[in-house]
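Morning, I've got a small favour to ask if you have a moment. Here's the protein in full, and shout if anything looks odd to you:
***
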Amino acid sequence: QVHLVESGGGVVQPGGSLRLSCAASGSSGAIYAMGWYRQAPGKQRELVACINRDGRQTYADSVKVRFTISRDNAKNTVTLQMNSLKPEDTAVYYCASDWTEYGFLVTGAELWGQGTQVTVSS
């Protein structure tokens, strides 16, 4: 059984930076796609960024250039560096993973963390 454990998050002023990390434990060696979704109050969950084992990255248009996703395959960890944060980035951020990239991006990620709150406010 695979578990995803997130760390990071918190409160930051507009223009600031935060880093989110997620570690996969258990039988996680076959995980292909890892990344982040987010859900703001009253809104649907949306993709933030995804990275596969080969390093290919996918970003939501709203975070391109500002956010960077990276991964350590040996440690089964994924990190999201968030720069130039805006109030509209405020949401609960969920680490997610799937055995395929298609599953992660299209049909719905198979595994989810518990989420971590990111609040961007002055």
In short: The CA atoms of residues 33 and 101 lie 5 Å apart.
